[in-house]
Design brief:
Blueprint (H helix, E strand, L loop, with lengths): L5 H12 L4 E3 H8 L8 H16 L11 E4 L2 E4 L7 H17 L3 H13 L12 H27 L3 H14 L4 H13 L3 H14 L1
Antiparallel strand pairs: 1-3, 2-3
Helix pairs in contact: 1-3, 4-5, 5-6, 6-7, 6-8, 7-8, 8-9
């Protein structure tokens, strides 16, 4: 479902960040207009909710079967875990942790690759609101931690070329992250590229 109206995207994003939880009308107004909401803010939210219900196919369905439900003091977006990318991502990471605990590094690495592969660019990139910026930073940090874990696992499995390929993009995205720089040095060294490892060290020192 593609939404062209910025306000529609913002309200839907807020509900998706808190699935199956009631978000109060006042909190929606504060999220969409964080500084000076207009006098018509509540009415505008009602208009957005109506539009989202049409897009979600709720019109004409019994209230208890609607995806976007009215629940005092606001609204709730009913969604199954498998329908949300973030839930699927976290499920893969949890399964990878379980596989690691069981000593199955191959399976764990595969699950982490699947988790990272679900990302299609920065989270909430088209939502211009402070709540989205805060959530996006948190999600980016989570992705970075999982990426770091995956590189460590690739290195432990001897997949140095895979680690190097993955680190190239991660360092472009987080040039000041020291751990990625250290992993790059190690990956090049273990690949037999001692000169490359030293070059990575010099570059890291200059950048940091």
């Amino acid at each position: 479902m593609k939404l062209t109206a910025a306000r529609h995207r913002a309200v839907l994003a807020l509900l998706l960040l808190h699935p199956n939880r009631v978000i109060a009308m006042n909190d929606i107004v504060d999220a969409v207009w964080p500084h000076s909401p207009p006098a018509t803010a509540r009415h505008q939210v009602l208009t957005v909710i109506s539009a989202l219900r049409r897009r979600l196919g709720d019109v004409g369905r019994p209230a208890q079967e609607q995806a976007l439900q009215t629940r005092s003091p606001g609204y709730l977006l009913r969604i199954e875990p498998a329908q949300l990318d973030l839930h699927r991502f976290e499920a893969r990471v949890q399964d990878a942790d379980a596989a690691t605990q069981a000593g199955d590094a191959q399976t764990a690495a595969g699950l982490l690759r699947e988790a990272i592969g679900m990302w299609r660019g920065p989270a909430l990139a088209d939502i211009d609101a402070p709540f989205a910026a805060t959530a996006a930073r948190s999600l980016a940090e989570r992705k970075r931690g999982v990426g770091e874990k995956l590189v460590d696992m690739e290195l432990s499995l001897g997949r140095h070329a895979d680690a190097l390929s993955r680190l190239a993009g991660m360092i472009d995205e987080h040039p000041l992250h020291e751990r990625f720089r250290a992993q790059l040095m190690l990956a090049r060294y273990r690949s037999g590229d001692v000169v490359g490892a030293l070059d990575a060290f010099r570059t890291a020192r200059q950048v940091l």
